[in-house]
Amino acid sequence: MAEITARAPERAQLLADFALHLRAQRALSENTVRAYLGDLEHLFAHAVRHGVSRLDQVDLAVLRGWLAAMAGADRSRATLARRSAAARTFFRWAVHTSRLATDPTLRLASARSGAPLPTVLAVEPVTRLLDAARERAQDDDDPLLVRDWAALELLYGTGVRVGELCGADVPDVDLGTRTLRVLGKGGKERVVPFGLPAARAVDAWLAGARPRLVREGTPPALLLGRRGGRADQRQLRSVVHALAAAVGVDDIAPHALRHTAATHLLEGGSDLRSVQEMLGHASLATTQRYTHVSAERLRSAHRLAHPRA
């Protein structure tokens, strides 16, 4: 049976095999893979400190003690939920691959993250943000400003994740039908529509600005960086933070534009199933939280405006 002490070669091989499973069969993102491996390292270290040296000795009591110790250290509920999920996924895989006879997580109570409501902007500040991006692109000769304008219009216009947008290539955009094809979580492909403002920004980027950044060896990436490589998420996050500060909008991340797009769609009358498909959510329950955002905004408006609120 595999040793899980820090220097045991079986432990390193076990985690390497599990990582391969997460990447190849579960198609999880690299960030999720790293997080799960870190969670298991943390679990194994806890188990060893409590006299457990083999994988088959990790039982329900060890797992409960591990989660209880983190709760006592004031870990966030989101962290506890993710670590619980990492343990479940690992032990299920270990049983399935005959590394273990039984799964000790079967009776482990689920930790719920209690995820907070996502940050959502009203229509007016979003309009200010996008207008500022357009004006900067039109007033300056820097092609990156045109890229930033196109990126922000697409993030809000389609509701895609920033990583999905950075992973898109030029052929993935169809200006005729005003659609963008992206590869989402789990390797699932979807096609999302965007409106005329985003189409104008993308056309300006593809027709005039992007060719100026192309170098030898430049990939077919839709969004490019200064040196002709594929733009990455950090670049777009910096752009959104800086532009929000410049126009006096609450500091937001690109993901807030996804939340905002979803909320505005629902407030405008779109049905949940359509928004679910557009966002690429596997579960309708994930999409439903945006109805809670809309309800909370309505309650806030009522409290501020109604004389008997």
Radius of gyration computed on alpha carbons = 23 Å
Number of domains: 2
CATH superfamily of the largest domain: Intergrase catalytic core
Please tell me what the overall shape is.
elongated
Query: What CATH architecture label of the largest domain applies?
Result: Orthogonal Bundle
Please give the order of strands in the largest beta sheet: 1-2-3
**If you average the pLDDT, what whole number results?**
87
What is the CATH topology of the largest domain? Answer: hpI Integrase, Chain A
Order of helices and strands: HHHHHHHEEEHHHHH
- Main CATH class of the largest domain: Mainly Alpha
Continuous helix count:
12
Low-confidence stretches: none
